[in-house]
Specification:
The protein is an alpha/beta fold. The protein is built from 21 helices and 18 strands. Bound molecules: adenosine-5'-triphosphate.
Amino acid sequence: MTVATRILFVDDEPAYCRIFSKRIGADPRFRVETAGSGAEALERLQHSPADIVITDLSMPLMDGIELLSEIKSLYPQIFILILTSDDSTSQVVKAMKAGAYDYLLKPFDFEMVERSIATILSHKAAVQAGLCPECLSGEQYCFENLIGQDRKMFEIYEMISQVAQTSATVLITGESGTGKELIASAIHAKSTRKDKPFIQINCAALTEGLISSELFGHEKGAFTGAVARKKGLFEQASGGTLFLDEIGDISPTTQVSLLRILELGTFQRVGGTETIKADVRLICATNRDLAAAAREKQFREDLYYRLNVVSLQAPPLRDRRSDIPLLVRYFLERYCSLNNKQIDGVTRDAMTLLCNYDWPGNCRELANIIEHAVIFSRGRTLDKDSLPSQIRTSDRHSSGLTLNLATATLADAESALIKKVLEESNWNLKKAAELLDIARGTLYGKMEKYHLTKPV
Ligand SMILES: Nc1ncnc2c1ncn2[C@@H]1O[C@H](COP(=O)(O)OP(=O)(O)OP(=O)(O)O)[C@@H](O)[C@H]1O
């Protein structure tokens, strides 16, 4: 027996709900429910899970984008289609960037609706069969091995795609654990060099003496212990990509050799005289501020400019919090499968804590915490007790919000956060909306919802 696909249709116009329910609900493959507002939709989802939500964009109180963001943070696995009567609006672009799967034009053509649902179902089937959804979803949330659908990640995907078509040297900067290595390998995988080697080396892990021979190779007898000729990484990566991680840590001597390669396109093995051509795309990464190091003469300025032909900044996780639920689910699946455990999800309050934490160690820290929680969890759901104490107490430490975590709901957390930002921005709504990264209209709606007014 095949299980019916559960569809929740949200529109403040009852006539649309009726028509949709009558037509699509008549098909035994679908089970349709309707809601007349965003709040009703969220309420319904708590009791009655859905596979697909189809929502109108313009609704009073909570609009479609707001509902979309709420659903994406609470139930990242749900596919969302938006309904609009005008496909040229910036709202559609915004909705797509916020993670909508597709949009449908009103008044709707049922054939189009059925086609969109069919596309979603084949996408789901592909994911379940272990295929990367990227191939089918228009790069919704997985780009090579990078997970994220925040606007900042879309910008990164776009830059990766563009730079991959060239042989330009790329400098990736960003805090530790932000995915710099994944970005480097995505550039390689998208490039014409993808069938040639991708070789990486952590420059900080090698002593000054070793790094030159690792990179450029050596001739027999070049130094004590050089018993045979050895090819360096520039030769091994020939035709492909060489990724130099922690480039900020290389010595002045190695900086000179690297500059030479970048200027001449050739190098010599240590102890050798033969000039070898380097056919390598170079990608470097650092979590240091290399521009400042160059200004302060701690890193060669000429080399810095050579490396920084294209620069990519991996965003810290705290600057793309909307991706946290998605990453949580991704790591949960990964570590459940690695550890042979069955955990179906994360409780709402645990997810709130995860979303509020500042993640100084970025995605790596999140991955470690989920792995630890999966290993030690005994139930089928991860709750806040499976999280380490620094996360459980993070609300108070990181934001200064005074919430009783034992009883607080997501709405309490949101209301407290908005109130705090409004106070900090001196009730300047434009500034507060910018800080919260939401539209001013959305902020008005939330202030109304939580009865937040400027004290007189
Ligand atoms: N966008 C992402 N999607 C999925 N996993 C991610 C993402 N970013 C980072 N990770 C995971 O986080 C961990 C650290 O990533 P990675 O090594 O690429 O970070 P990094 O910035 O190179 O760190 P470092 O500066 O310490 O070398 C890896 O397990 C990686 O799979």
